[in-house]
Amino acid sequence: MDSSAKPQASGIKPRAVFEVAFDICYLACAIISGIVLAVQGHVAYGVMAIILFAGDFMHLAPRVLSQLNTGKDYSKPLGLGKMAASITMAIFYSILWSIGASRYPSLKLAALGPLVHVLTAARIALCLLPQNNWAANKDEGPLRIWRNIPFFIAGALVALLYAASWIYSRDAISHLFVPILASFAFYAPVVLFGAKNKKLGMLMIPKSLAYVWIILTGFKL
């Protein structure tokens, strides 16, 4: 969830209990599915899920601890965890592109592959800039927008690939353009307005569900 959680004075609120339970279930689903998919031979898909888990774990673990009202300040690990998740999300979609491009060569969209990977590299480079101020967990500068521009363009191209496959083949994973578009639709308000309205961070829950949809689709391969 994209908000700057700080230790609360007393008690654990029902919303925090729900969020902690959701985060644990989400992380468990990602890592277990990733391992099982890799063991079943769908290595790229499994690795994709494991990479997503790794970044989200670094973000959500300190968030879970902060929600449990341990009395400690988790601002630094939360901020650095956001950086890790921002990077692994980009890698996640880059791998998803590669899976689709190799599965649907007849679509003649392979030429866009280098662009997707360049956009991914640009996203990662922008996330690594010190001006992001990750360690202070103050994600309010202009880089909040700039680093997401290549990410959104890459996501649009990945969605385009699977939408085209839906039109021309409609196989077991063609529908992935739906959760891809959903994930970005839920993420966009957080990027644009989340710094001023922390409640928008709750949109990261349906965004995470879109990721679960993408991951579980791997079992249809």
Written account of the structure:
- With 221 residues, the chain is an all-alpha fold.
- The protein has a single domain, classed as Rhodopsin 7-helix transmembrane proteins (Rhopdopsin 7-helix transmembrane proteins).
- It is built from 8 helices and no strands.
- The protein starts with 13 loop residues before the first helix and ends with a helix.
- The model is unreliable at 1-10 (pLDDT under 50).
Low-confidence stretches: 1-10
What is the CATH superfamily label?
Rhodopsin 7-helix transmembrane proteins
The backbone outline, from C-alpha atoms, is globular
Q: CATH class, anyone?
A: Mainly Alpha
Query: Which CATH architecture would you pick?
Result: Up-down Bundle
Largest sheet: none
Q: Give the strand tally.
A: 0
List keywords for this structure.
221 residues; mainly alpha; Rhopdopsin 7-helix transmembrane proteins; 8 helices; globular; disordered N terminus
Please specify the SSE layout and strand pairing:
Layout: H1 14-39, H2 43-67, H3 75-103, H4 113-128, H5 143-146, H6 148-168, H7 177-193, H8 204-217
Helix pairs in contact: 1-2, 1-8, 2-3, 3-4, 3-6, 4-6, 6-7, 7-8
In short:
The chain has 221 residues and is mainly alpha-helical.
